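Dear colleague,

Following up on Tuesday's group meeting, I ran the structure prediction for the two-component complex that the binding team flagged. I've pasted the input sequences exactly as they went in, so you can double-check that nothing got truncated or mislabelled along the way. The structure tokens for the whole assembly follow below. Feel free to forward this to whoever is handling the docking comparison.

Inputs:
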Amino acid sequence: MIGFAVRRLIAAAPTLIAVLTLVFVIVRIVPGDPALVILGDQATPEAIAALRARLGLDRPLHEQYLEFLFASLTGDFGTSLVTGRPIVSEVAAVLPHTLDLTAAAMLIGTVVGVPVGIWAALHRNRAIDVAARILSLLGLSFPVFVSGIFLLLLFALHWRIFPVIGNADLADPVDRLHKLVLPAITLGLVMAAYITRVTRSAMLHVLSEDFIRTARAKGVPWRAVVWRHGLRNALIPVVTVVGLYVGILIGNSVLTEIVFNRPGLGKIIVGALNQRDYAMLQGLMVIYCFLIVVVNLITDLTYGLIDPRVKHA
Amino acid sequence: MRLRAALLAGAAALGVAAFGGTAAAQPRTTLNVGMAAQDVGRLDPHFAVSTIDRVAVAWMFNGLVRFKPGSINPAEIEPDLAERWEASADGRTWTFVLRRGVQFHGGFGEVTAEDVAFSLRKAAQSSTSAFSGDFRAFESVEVVDPHTVRIRLRENVPSLLGLVTNYAGGYIVSKRAVEQKGDAFMRAPIGSGPFAFASVTPNQSLELAAHEGYFRGAPQIKRISYRFIPSDASRDLAFQNRELDINYGRAQTAWIERTRRLPNVVVDVFEPAELAILNINTRQPPFDDIRVRRAVAHAIDRSELVRWRGEAVAREGQSLVPRGYLGFTPDVPLPGFDQARARSLLAEAGHPNGISVRVIHTQLPEMLSAMQVVQQQLRRVGITLDLQVVEHATFHQQIRQDLSPLVYYAAARFPVADIYLTQFYHGRSIVKTPTAVTNFSHCAMADAEIDAARVETDPQKQLALWAAAQRKLVEAVCGVPLFETLLVFARYGNVDYGYELKGSMSLGPLITEATRFR
């Protein structure tokens, strides 16, 4: 398994370099000058040119690119063009918040979504199934800035149980958990809705397979058929979807972060994009790609645990 | 009730007391301020260009002189680090005598003439300041003795005191701190103001601590937590939940009325107003024909724009310089709202069926919605604007590349007409030139008056020259003044700024040593 993991990481290297190249090119193609953003609208062309030189933006693109690639390989992402703060420390400061939110949302999504999906599949076209489908559709349709604000109105303003400002003290586990509850529910319910639909669909497909019919014909109890034969096979697409969704969650939790005023990777990415902070964007993309590779690797390894037929050799 | 009980029990299980618990019994000394921003930028005051940065550096730094707290009236400028000053008869040599014993934060020692000279030289250099253009007239800054500094000018400026006030490039930094910290200074600056930098948490907050050795006395507020909350809805909820004491407000009458209805809340609406102008590129067809420009001007209904924005926060633009600025005059030939006249002018100019123009504009909601009202007004007379909505940084770059014949631009500047007129309507500031700033109209017909007013020592003649410049520019329809929007902040009634907030050049409330919780 270790060999498999190492091979996967090595195989991810070309993807990583391709993504980095793409990011490097795209952020420079997009109009908007970081020097103008930093210096403001009263800046003279002379001041803008001076700052561009200081930031190294006046150098040939290939030089900037090679320097960026080399720096990325050595883990030195430099400093933010806008704030001057080291990118690694900026990311390190927010990454735990992002991982907390992602893990909690995934947990809620899985704990709610998988059983509801199975339940709906087992009661196909009955009231329970219809209710599960409608609720999951609502969950997917409700934007987090609506559900998030609704939860804040209820739990922060009306009942005053949770705060509106969700920047937790990482050193205090109670505070960390306290400020995670509402954002995790907001994001977790969206994920639960998604997982419910995928689980239901996968279960329905598996339950119609010949081997299920055979198992039932052989007299295997229905509960064992569902849990041992049905669910185990249905979980493969569910794990795939969860793995993909975790990657999306890491970057796309930005709306949740904004509504609950939580720090996070998504929020930094949007800020860096608005301010044309090339250095920050590039650094964030390296880290983000790395996280995606790791998540995909974990997903692949999980297949082996669920389905012994999947070999990592 | 069972749900509520369960939720409360859950919260108790987390060991969390409901808000408003024991803290209420103790005197409050931490001020929580909410700001509509993602993060602070550079905290070196000479690079503080965004509203969020300007508000914060004003709490940390002093100038040689300062606007009286709560005012932006240049006539009310008073001593700050300098206890007195004098100017030579020709107005080109200014000598400032510093207060003794003023201390920088963090043990960086006393503020001396060396620090002042270093700061002003730094502010005047394009490599170390975003405001270097303001100091073009500076010839030298000399240290006369440890507490005396002399500024020599190449030519007169309309307001030398304005350049050395607690605003933009006028802030005084610690020379030793800048040299010692290098690039780190922009992240953890050292000033001499009532509050000192304590820490910054990216995307969350900037924490400031009281400067106990502040020369005007130890601040009554001991800590400021400056929270970055970009979502208006979340910030408003946090304010309602009393997690914030002061909240950056929206310049909308509906928001103001709604917020004023909250118990014990005060909404301050204050200067400087941002004047929104529809700048017209006088070189590009069809706007190179003055009849078309006049048609645009006649099509604009300023009163409708003010009603749309809200009379509590907006007022009609009256000239190409904001109201209240030294040198502003309402005595200009501003074309009145007259749709029939606009249509006939278009027909005279050979466009009986109207015109269609492609215009670049930002996606920032406040600016976009204003431009959509303008678009609607122009459409009524046959001028169709094809709005190309782009992201804000792109907008700023593209309008400086002369890619839009009409440029909606809203700005506030130091309240002296010279700065507004020079940046927006002087030939030297035309975009895409080596000395460009924000002259999108390509107008240069008032350069002589603007230049002459800048160095004129007789105040009456100076005012007359600025008025003449405004008349020429309005006559040529270089731009159409639309409306002015004031600043809005809300606070709870127990927050006493220690002064009456009528204006603030830092674009936010000044927190001084006198600010306190009642």
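Chain A has two domains: 2-73, 92-277+289-306.

Cheers,
M.
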